[in-house]
Amino acid sequence: MNEPPRWAQWYVVALSTITSIVLAVSIFFIHGPSTRPDELGYLLNGRVLTGLKETPLPGVRGFYQAGYSLVTAVGALFGASIDVQFRVSLFLNMFFVLLTGLALYALLTQHFSISARWAALVAATISVAPSVAAYSLFAYAESLSRLLIAVVVLLVFELAASPTVSKMIATGAVAAFLPVVHGRFVLLLPLTVLAMIGIALFTQPRRYHALVAGLSTCVVVYLTFDQLNMYLRNELYVASVGKEDRMLERMTTLSEWPSILRSAVGQTWYLISTSFGLAFVGLAVLSLAVWQHFSKRSWREALPAVYVIGLVGAVTLTSSVQLAHVVRPDHLIYGRYVEAVSPVLVAIACAALLTSFRWKLWVLGLAVVVALTGILLIATDGDRLREMIAANRYFSPPNAIALDWTRERFAPIGYVVLAVIFIAIAIGIILLWQRSATNALVCLGCIGVLATMYTATQTVIPYNEIRDELTLDNRIKDLTEENKRSDTHVAINFNTRAANAFVHYRYLVHPIQVVLINQSNVVPANVNCVISINSEPPAATGWTQRGDEPALDLTLWMRQGQDSC
């Protein structure tokens, strides 16, 4: 395997620099959190963890855990403004993208016999892809989860090579922290524990002391952060209690399994197609490695490959259970969580292709995309994705970040259209790779940068541009003394369309607390201002209009006799 030319090093620097500039500039132009209430939940978590008081999120059944909240807590320490906290968190996400690239670089150079130059080229190409880079523009756990999964895979490979006490402790700590980053990774903890036990037992002499240290670390880290989770849940997410029971009930209900399997097929389709078939190549190479090691009875050497395959299956399973019921078109091809394993699979695929160009595996991967497309068409009784998008059903871009450019250029997109697009690009890259692996990786990197730039400038920045048109936030601030804002509550009627603006105002007027109330209930005595639709004041009498919101056709109502919110 020849080294890539010298200019490839400058390409890596240019690629990374361009992406960093685009992301950094975007951070300053974003109008605030885009996904709701996800990002708001993590930001409020961070503030609570720094000792600040925040009003619970009523009716929110989701639960935003403590793992990524530690990152937003760091942002909260930089100033009282939630807006500053939000943007600091995004810059920390950019740092996680850099660390993800470094973890992939270490994995390739230390365990896949790839030279430093090739590893840098592959790691940079993966890092600038929207599945890694673009997610840094959202204040939620995705950037951290991609980093931690790359790190835990690296650690398992390190353990298989040399199971020392320090490596066991590090692996146990990361594995126990992953479920606290997001509930979708709950199965990774027992999976990692089994890998640790297997490696310790298959090593001669057996490393019992290292295993005990690693497992003890797992227990301590998990229990510590579980207590932190309980604290956040009690403070902000009372309505989320029992969510785990609902998930377990769905998994054990036989009638739910067709929907769960359909969801698993859709997410697998997304994983393979958006990686241009490379994720399949990575899985195929790992499967072949397992077969070869098992045939030689080299059990310890087989465990890292088994672990990565199990990791992909575990993330897909938990995400599929959660998304068994389709509410929006993005639920049909949800990629937000399965993409967490994509960087590792693509890195392994590139390493295999560089050492021995296995184009047949790549072509087989594209055939799998075709097969999965057919299964989805049958399972959803036609191209349901295309039907829902043609009907203008709401599509959340962050849940399928690699598809936002296709939704604009090839609308209405469907399984067939997307499969044709990604397969056509993949065939071009395969043909290019046959002539020059360097040029193929450069092409992949350019595609990734362009897609990330599109996501940043055309999807993320304008996503909540309506915030620039809102006026009631300034009106509320004018009606509240600055030194009393932390103790002020403004209500929004839950049963009106005003509730859709809850996250906007909660973010814009912070530290004033915007809360949701049921219109049928009496407005709490400590609330002097209510945002509602123009025709529905909080009560027939006793309230006066104090401002209008033309962009949303809303009105600010204040109690009669009061001059402050």
Could you explain how this protein is built, in words?
There is one protein chain. This protein has 565 residues and is mainly α. 61% of the residues lie in helices and 5% in strands. The chain has helices at residues 7-29, 38-49, 66-76, 82-111, 116-127, 142-161, 165-181, 188-202, 208-236, 243-251, 257-274, 278-295, 299-322, 342-355, 359-379, 384-390, 404-409, 415-435, 437-460, 472-478, 502-508; strands spanning 489-493, 513-517, 527-533, 543-549, 554-559. The protein has a five-stranded mixed beta sheet, covered by helices on one side. The chain is globular and about 85 Å long.
Keywords:
565 residues; mainly alpha; 5-stranded mixed β-sheet
Summarize the structure.
The chain is 61% helix and 5% strand.
Can you tell me the overall shape? globular
Read across the widest sheet, the strand sequence of neighbours is: 2-1-3-5-4
Category from helices, strands and their pairing: mainly alpha
Relative helix content: 55-70%
Alpha carbon gyration radius? 25 Å
User: How much of the sequence is in beta strands?
Assistant: 5-15%
Query: What is the string of SSEs from the N terminus onward?
Result: HHHHHHHHHHHHHHHHHHHHEHEEEE
The main pleated sheet reads as: 5 strands, mixed
Q: Roughly how many Å apart are the termini?
A: 70 Å
Give the count of helical stretches.
Answer: 21
Strand tally is 5
Mean pLDDT: 89
Give the arrangement of secondary structure elements.
Layout: H1 7-29, H2 38-49, H3 66-76, H4 82-111, H5 116-127, H6 142-161, H7 165-181, H8 188-202, H9 208-236, H10 243-251, H11 257-274, H12 278-295, H13 299-322, H14 342-355, H15 359-379, H16 384-390, H17 404-409, H18 415-435, H19 437-460, H20 472-478, E1 489-493, H21 502-508, E2 513-517, E3 527-533, E4 543-549, E5 554-559
Parallel strand pairs: 1-2, 1-3
Antiparallel strand pairs: 3-5, 4-5
